[in-house]
Specification:
The strands form two sheets. This protein has a four-stranded antiparallel β-sheet with strand order 1-2-3-4. A four-stranded mixed β-sheet has the order 7-6-5-8, with helices on one face. The protein is built from four helices and eight strands, in the order αβααββββββαβ. By secondary structure, the chain is an alpha+beta fold. A hairpin with a 6-residue loop joins β5 and β6. The protein is elongated and about 60 Å long. α1 runs parallel beside α3 and α2 runs antiparallel to α3.
């Protein structure tokens, strides 16, 4: 195998280790897009299978498999709330520290639907109960940081 192939293999191993460490650090995972994960998985499997079946050289087969695994790593893409920061993107090492946040808004449209959390310019959705999120945020945000809770549940009243 060539040096490039070995470097690609090492990069892929380090990438997966990093993504697993980041995922383990997250206390509250944000809701993930299932359709995109299915599409990424299918695309990755197609790349791996095509390279295994079409290429004859071992070096090219290994490169194809590693390329498919790099694409497949997007399935492990995780965002959420860690103990010391909000992980906006798994490749963002520092994320957004809780000390940098001035205000948090939690919004739930209907009971049972994911809770939308906005801070700064971006937002996330969570399936955890509202009470758990509020307790977690109140423990980790700076003292005095406002947490606005907006609930728009239909009461089912008839006129």
């Amino acid at each position: 195998m060539s040096g490039l192939t070995l470097v690609m293999c090492a990069f892929t191993i380090v990438l997966y280790l990093y993504l697993f460490v980041v995922r383990k650090d997250i206390q509250f995972l944000a809701v993930e897009r299932k359709l995109s994960k299915v599409a990424i998985t299918i695309f990755s499997v197609m790349i791996i299978l095509s390279m295994v079946m079409m290429e004859e050289a071992l070096d090219n087969r290994v490169r194809g498999i590693v390329s498919g695994l790099v694409f497949l790593s997007f399935v492990l893409d995780s965002r959420g709330l860690a103990l010391d920061r909000i992980i906006v993107h798994p490749m963002s090492i520092k994320g957004v520290l809780y000390q940098e946040i001035d205000r948090v808004v939690l919004f739930q449209e209907k009971e049972g639907q994911p809770i939308k959390m906005n801070y700064f310019r971006r937002g996330m959705k969570f399936k955890q109960p509202l009470a758990e999120l509020v307790v977690f945020l109140s423990e980790h945000l700076n003292e005095g940081t406002p947490i606005d809770i907006l609930v728009d549940h239909d009461q089912g009243t008839k006129d």
